[in-house]
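Appendix B, record 7
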Amino acid sequence: MKHGARNKLTATVTRIKSDDIMSLAKFTISGTFEMASVLTTESVNEMELKEGDEVQLVIKAIHVLPVKEG
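Structure tokens (predicted):
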């Protein structure tokens, strides 16, 4: 599949939590960093995504949320 995003990371699926409509998939990158993605449960099923799978995370930010700490 062709995509316009240029940022790609190799990750391992660590957890998938699904209901009828949406799923939350969690990933580790290099065994250290964690990321998560919300996608449709239909997409999870079509990809046959499961814990332990190695995947490419294609990152394309459309929003930037500034956070001021302290």
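Remarks on this record: The two ends are 43 Å apart (CA to CA). DSSP finds one helix and four strands in the chain.
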